[in-house]
């Protein structure tokens, strides 16, 4: 006799089937080998198996891509992939089928689990699958549910081979056998043959013990009597085997009856019991327990690969199925005596089994959808990374995240991915709504379209977003990217408390024909509140009681802003999901309402975002997940010292860096760690940079720049990592938003921080409120210490910085040169300006920052206050002590009063600048404030001339690591 225990099972009358399928089994020759060496006689599949095969391997990648490029739907791709595998396996087993004259060699394919309670559709799908596969050794799997039983009878009567699945009780098993026999009898009555039909009844085993053992755990915990505890303990691991033996007892009785003898005389085969779920779930039990105890003639045991391997290694074949029947009956008597209702247990197992297969089927469709969408949008092909010597570092980071099951845990909204502390977990648990908000907003597209029509019908010529940080930056990107569309209002964004900025905006718009969108997640953010008060007062003087018709609010439910909007008769209040932080809100109402009002491509942009969601789903392997790859790269590179993330994005998406800057800085800059985003800094050649840079080039497909490409190639050759993102067009911003929203928390996990809190942003807000309270009481704001005064220009700071610069000299140039000389290797220079945001100011600031970069080789950032307080401000205070700060302020030529407040916008701006500086001082940051007086342009030009003449020879040598 063959020494292989698997082969010996065949000699004892039991067929070994494998509960597994994947394409590599067919293409590698492994399946043929098992048929030849292990006497493998069949194969079963189910949605869980296919889901793991397709999501957990690259076996199907080429076929899936080809089908996706042909425009196949998700279900069409599923049908093609699955039927191809089943057909291939059936062909491999055809020799077995022929050898046993149709008695073995079958391959099973399940009808959609979503049809488990639909008899008619189950029948239709089973017939379609059987016809499509057109092979005599294919079995169609149908669940043994109440709705499945009449389908089984009909399908047997129609001449199909049927594998009845999800059988847990003897009672249901006998109902399944009855359906099989009735189907055969109908064929005989119709004069049709029955000798070419095969069927198995899949009786599930190990899940029984898992469920019953849990009930025994409860009884054992309640029992105190040693004898009672021993009786309970003796029942562990007994129910499943006893249940199967009683089912086999029924099998022998039914198929030896005169009723079946009449069918057998016509050539009918018995419906063999098939033992399914035979891998051992409890590690305390033998790994071949559900094989060795259930061996008998006319049975099938379908084993997963690990159980096949275990039995081949140490299985002990012997006829065991017909032994111990008395003990089996006693097991059920003992369970009943303990109050365990076995019918309740098995009914639940059936329901759970249907649900489990349905979930796996849906996950399988999600896998296919994700792969199809990735192919269709070619995200991976358009998002490439040239990492040089850092490639192994990033690869290792990706593997580490995969081993932690990171993506699946994120989609389950598991806060322990990032932090274990309860306070952090509470914040995180209420901050993950951005994962699914694009689908939610998609459902509201008809309402957004109707609102857009309403706004146009009301004759509005301009729309102004009154917001700050996360609620304003995304609309700002949309306004700059898509511009003014004919027939729609122009979009403006006000996120500056500088009086000149407010006055300039007011000069550009007609108040009566302007729609103001007040955007605030909390509903109490100072800046939007003050903007709202000012402009509502201005409109009310023109429109009286109808002023509210010019206003819209976007906020979380039950905020002060919602209450005020309802009180003041706002045209509309959009309530955003509360579980989305401001910087993650681009694809929520905070971004989409302004885009809709300006006539932007809301539907297309959201559709592209959903493509990115699918590409980043848990169904996609980590190495192919674009969001995970991007986050792993920027996180791992930051840990390796490359923590200056430099963005290059030519028009029309040149403003995108503003939004990413906030997302990265505010999410990662804390606990003394952080990634410094560098936006708007023109690209240069390698000699300008230190070795702390990563370059990210984001462009649309139609935009090419030989100069940028040449410089990037030089940077890459010099060892700098370069990431390239190519968008189809501007509407791919939806995709890019989601990818960065997904990647940033990944980087946070690698850095070991909570990417969803912003403790130091709140600190600056508190500083401002304290200073405003002092102003209300004293009529003046506290003044900083003067370092040097030169005409209208003043340099101020705190005592510590004043002391450090005391020996610099008596001129502005001396102090600024000494301050820049404090830059160390790996530092960055942050210029933060509380002035109006005007093009000619921007140009001067850019010239200043480039000179600073060329002299220090340090990364440079610029940011308008108070906007940056809600973005890079968190990094400045909570991140590493690697920033050298130059705060620029000016005196207001004309101030603007705030209705109902003692302070003005000019005072508010000063308090914000002072509050910002106070937070820096508390952390001993290297910082000075330069006040330009009343003439900002002249002051910036003077500052530029000083930087042009600055000489910092030690820096150029010292800042290169």
Detailed description of the structure:
- By secondary structure, the chain is an alpha/beta fold.
- It has four domains: 5-352, TIM Barrel (Alpha-Beta Barrel), CATH 3.20.20.70; 378-427 and 621-751, Glucose-6-phosphate isomerase like protein, domain 1 (Rossmann fold), CATH 3.40.50.10490; 434-609, Glucose-6-phosphate isomerase like protein, domain 1 (Rossmann fold, 3-Layer(aba) Sandwich); 759-958, Rossmann fold.
- It contains 42 helices and 24 strands.
- The strands form four sheets. It has an eight-stranded parallel barrel with strand order 1-2-3-4-5-6-7-8, surrounded by ten helices. Strands 19-20-24-23-21-22 form a six-stranded mixed sheet, with helices on both faces.
- Helix 32 (656-668) links the parallel strand 15 and strand 16 (676-679).
- Helix 11 (206-222) packs across helix 13 and helix 11 (206-222) crosses helix 18.
- The longest helix has 36 residues, at 342-377.
- The protein is elongated and about 115 Å long.
- The termini are far apart.
